[in-house]
Amino acid sequence: MTKKELALEYHKKGYNCTQAVACAFCGEFGVSEEEMYKIAEGFGLGMGMMDTCGALTGLFMLIGMKNSGGVEQAGKTKADTYKKTREYAAKFKEQNGSYLCKELKGVETGKVLRSCPDCIRDAVALTEKYLA
Predict the structure, then answer these.
(1) Which of these, 32, 43, 53, 119, could form a disulfide with 18 (CB 3.0-4.6 Å)?
(2) For 11-58, what is each residue's pLDDT tens digit?
(3) Half-sphere exposure (Cβ direction) of 6: Cα atoms closer than 13 Å
């Protein structure tokens, strides 16, 4: 099963968009699916308030996990991680027209830019590109 298929299976099982993306990659980072699920729960639905797309925040979590130097290097990798999250947010926006959940879902305009499954697919593809 590909990462995209796995993430979409998770989403069908009721995982939010963040959980679907992040849990698809938990094996690469030695984090249990249960732990990642719990960590990512509050980030779905655009952080619970239709702000930054949940699938994209799943990607941000994974960028942090790959790029961070951890507690022992506190603060030393932060600026570079922020740079990478901005770069991937821009790529996501270029593909989808926005990175805001409410805009992607057309809450105010009535025009849906991208479905949740499509956002998940795009975030997984960008994660794979980042990790390559």
Answers:
(1) 43
(2) 999 999 999 999 999 999 999 999 999 999 999 999 889 999 999 999
(3) 15
From the CB of residue 20, how many other CB atoms can be counted at a distance below 10 Å?
A: 30
Cα–Cα distance for residue pair 77/70, rounded to 1 Å: 8
2 exposed, middle or buried (CB, 10 Å; 0-12, 13-18, 19+)? Answer: exposed
Kindly state the tokens that stand for 104.
């992607």
- Burial label for 117, CB within 10 Å (0-12, 13-18, 19+), is middle
pTM listed for this prediction:
0.95
pLDDT in tens, 60-86: 999 999 999 888 888 899 999 999 999
